[in-house]
Amino acid sequence: MKTKKEKKAPVHVMVEQPLQLRKLILSAAIDATKLLKEYEEFVALKERKLKTLRYLHKEMRNIKSISKEFDDRHFPQIPHELPVEHRKVHTLKSVPKIVEAPKTVTLPKKPVSEIERLNSELREIEEKLGSL
Fold first, then answer.
1. What's the mean pLDDT in 114-119?
2. Burial 12-42 (b: 16+ CB within 10 A, else e)
3. Residues 15 and 21 sit within 8 Å (Cβ to Cβ)
4. Domain spans of the chain?
């Protein structure tokens, strides 16, 4: 028994403006490649960061253990709080007087330097030119 003949799809298709289509496809491929490259760089950076953090945690634990050993061996133990009789109690003997702020004194204007004077003249001239 023969089955019905299936229609074969044509192999070639006419594309309008094939050059422009090729350029678009190639630019999309280039963009995708750049994105993949940036992603790989990101993953590598993340791994380096995690590795560095693990190393720093390990070194901090090492430093803490060494400093604890040093403290235990070389420094005497001191109680954290002083007994009550040794604490100093600060009392307020008198209320401080309120002092009025001195009046503001206006200082004479400094003489304008030559450069500042020339800059201001230049600005005035530019403003006049802009208004014309």
1. 77
2. eeeeeeeeeeeeeeeeeeeeeeeeeeeeeee
3. yes
4. 15-76
H/E segment holding residue 18:
helix 18-74
Q: What DSSP string describes 40-88?
A: HHHHHHHHHHHHHHHHHHHHHHHHHHHHHHHHHHHS----SS--GGGS-
pLDDT (mean) for 82-91: 59
Mean of pLDDT values over 82-104: 63
- Interval 61-78: pLDDT, tens: 999 998 888 777 776 666
Quote the tokens at residue 110: 């400094």
Entry field: residues in the chain: 132
DSSP 94: S
For residue 36 the two structure tokens come to 């993949």
